[in-house]
Amino acid sequence: MTIQECYQRFGGDFDEVRKRLPSETLIKKFIAKFLNDGSFPDLKAAFAEGDRERAFRAAHTLKGVCGNLSLSRLLLSASKLTELLRSEAAKIPEGAAALLDEVESDYELTVGAIRAFLDEEN
Fold first, then answer.
1. Coil, strand, or helix at residue 59?
2. What CA–CA distance (Å, rounded) separates 57 from 61?
3. How confident is the model at residue 122, as a pLDDT?
4. Could you give the CA distance from residue 89 to residue 52 in angstroms, rounded to a whole number?
5. CA 87, CA 33: separation in Å to the nearest integer?
6. Residue 10 belongs to a domain with what CATH number?
7. Residue 89: per-residue pLDDT
């Protein structure tokens, strides 16, 4: 699988990431680092603890990382969750769990495609 095929598999925008990271070597380096990004596990933990503020920060961080790497599908779901969590309410808003499920599905798709790509590379 090529890096372009990897991006297609997880719904990313390869042409867009090429504008930010002009070489495939850099793109490969940074998508590999995405696997170690702690924002998604932190998001899950914040939800489990009912901590809206921490969940917002984690979702916002995930959104930023996805934007920088043009992980478009995951960016979209993380953006929707970020906006729902942006409120000043003390608790996690109703409906956020369904959006978290969408983010988790997109995250797993993205991580799975990246791992498959990296496994083929090595």
1. helix
2. 6
3. 72
4. 8
5. 30
6. 1.20.120.160
7. 79
The predicted-structure confidence for 88-122, as pLDDT tens digits, reads as follows 778 999 899 999 999 999 999 999 999 999 999 87
Axis crossing angle, helix 52-69 with helix 24-34, rounded to the nearest 10: 160
Host domain of residue 70: 3-121
Residue 15, number of CB atoms within 10 A of its CB: 10
State the residue for tokens 């297609």: 8
- The amino acid that residue 104 corresponds to is E
End-to-end Cα, the chain, rounded Å: 12
For 1-122, list the strands marked E by DSSP. Answer: none
CB 42 within 8 A of CB 60: no
Integer Cα distance of 89 and 91 in angstroms: 5
User: Would you tell me the crossing angle of helices 72-85 and 52-69 to the nearest 10 degrees?
Assistant: 150
Residue pointed to by tokens 């991580």: 111
